[in-house]
Design brief:
CATH class of the largest domain: Alpha Beta
CATH topology of the largest domain: Ribosomal Protein L22, Chain A
Structural class: alpha+beta
Distance between the termini: 50 Å
Number of helices: 7
Radius of gyration: 19 Å
Shape: globular
Number of domains: 2
Helix content: 25-40%
Length: 273
């Protein structure tokens, strides 16, 4: 008989949550919270929060053939539920999600919720972004050596972005990662993903706001009133955030193994190296 990891983790959960008390979660207006979940925290998340999953989410978890991927799904979805439940002051297991045509979760209940969120994951890390009454998108990617810089991004990058990807430049791989995460974050926020017309949008450094900030345009027309910035996540990992809030306050909430026990998050300003 195959071991049922979802049921096992639900039965074995501890009484104390591994994330901060939901009553202490506060998301101000015109602010964006970005939470970082590292691989080392997947096991505690599964053990404590798997009980919050809905029946269809449990079924999706069981469909994963490899335990590693199954654990990642359980951790990402249960932490997402815990945080949304805290921001909306409701039980995480009471939330109901639907799936957009692009395969992304969308909050179906509570119906009147104005909480925007976005989730992205790469090998070793997951980002979850939250804000009120806006569009928000987040993306994270891990650097892969040996990528064909000249061949990737065709039909996705705009002509201006492709021009910036000169394979002869020593920083071409870093530039590729930067453009890709920015484009993904923007398109997620716009609700279209890569299946729309991604090459109609251009992302580039915002020289007026300085390092770590970027701006976007659509067919040459600037998209104004947004906060777009790079996220400082590590030497081999690149992240980007796009939110339809002007001059939003963005905060990274990082967790380490030691903070799961005392439930005290480490906070840091995001976007400026």
């Amino acid at each position: 008989m195959q071991h049922d990891i979802v049921t096992a983790r639900s039965a074995g959960r501890t009484a104390s949550p591994i994330l901060p008390d939901p009553s202490r979660l506060s998301l101000p207006e015109r602010a964006v919270h970005v939470w970082v979940l590292n691989d080392a925290l997947v096991e505690p998340a599964c053990s404590t929060l798997a009980y919050t999953l809905s029946p269809d989410e449990r079924q999706r978890a069981r469909a994963y053939r490899h335990a590693r991927n199954r654990n990642y799904f359980i951790a990402r979805r249960s932490v997402l539920r815990w945080l949304i439940g805290g921001y909306l002051s409701c039980k995480p297991e009471s939330l109901r999600f639907s799936i957009t045509p692009f395969g992304k979760p969308a909050l179906q209940w509570p119906h009147a919720a104005s909480l925007a969120f976005s989730v992205s994951h790469t090998d070793g890390m997951t980002l979850l972004a939250f804000a009120w009454d806006c569009r928000v998108g987040v993306d994270v990617e891990r650097r892969i050596d040996g990528v064909d810089v000249a061949g990737i991004g065709r039909g996705i990058f705009s002509p201006i972005e492709e021009e910036a990807l000169d394979p002869a430049r020593p920083d071409s791989a870093a530039t590729l990662l930067s453009i890709w995460t920015r484009k993904e974050a923007l398109l997620k926020a716009l609700g279209m993903g890569l299946s729309g017309e991604p090459n109609a949008y251009t992302t580039k450094d915002d020289l007026l706001l300085g390092e770590g900030r970027w701006c976007a345009s659509h067919n040459g027309t600037t998209i104004s009133g947004w906060t777009c910035l790079d996220l400082v996540l590590g030497p081999e990992v690149r992240g980007a955030l796009a939110a339809s809030l002007e001059d939003a306050s963005v905060t990274l909430h990082r967790y380490s193994l030691s903070t799961w026990g005392d439930q005290t998050p480490r906070q840091a300003d995001a976007g400026v190296p």
